[in-house]
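dude i think i finally got it to work??
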Amino acid sequence: MFHFTYLQSIVIGLLQGVTELFPISSLGHAVLLPAWLGGSWESFAKSDQYLLVTIAFHLASAVALFLVFSKRWFRIISTTYLSLRRGEFVGSGIQLLARLVIGTIPVAILGKLFSDSLQSTFGAPLRAGIFLTLNGLILFGVERLTRTRHSHVHAVDPDAAIVERVSLGQAFLVGVGQSLALFPGISRFGISMTAGMMRGLNRAVASDFAFLLAFPAILGAGLLKAPKLLAAGAIAHDSVGPLLLGIGVAFVATFVSVTFLVRWFKHHTLNGFAVYCLLVGGLSIIRFGLFA
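look at this
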């Protein structure tokens, strides 16, 4: 039976909410933070139910993400319905939805098949530090590759910009790339956003594409694991309160962080996040490699 405290729940919920949609890997931080803190925190993270608790927080993040982009989702769904009803394209909704569905398929399949084995094999702090460093290099590399390009700007209809620049086949490849987030330290959001930038989308539109792709992936992962979390005896009675508090913290933190990022990427680059990943990843390699 799994026990954890209010403090642990608040910290992990806050960590989940802040890092899930930042391009810095929530799973990598879920591995590294307890390892850095040590003691009871490290024991807490090694529990069989620790991943299940983070999944519950993922569901809270999914709800918050949907609310931030609710108008966008309703527009996509409504124009898709009109397109199917009239037998012709109405707006870009149905075409964008097709890309989101296709981009989610590889994540769903590979996550179902390999998530547990990959996370248990590569979930050690040293490996998480290595992958986080690699994530920083990816962010830096894409910023450098795209800085001299003329980014496609479509202020009137960002959905149309995504449809124009990202084909169905490329959406599938982005989905395959998102699966790298099964390795703790690699950011799903970072992979999706940089893929959009490589296709010529400006950062604001590329981040929108990544946010839209993230919702079904986060929701699906949470729903897949939720039955185990709710199983009789999985959570001790005195830990239900901390669990509910952590879910609330994760929801609020995700809502605030996504709202912040939507504005941030209108005027800023990924370089700051890249520096952070390289710094934390490098220090983690030293701490858990050289001084383990």
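Residues 6-290 form one domain.
im so relieved honestly
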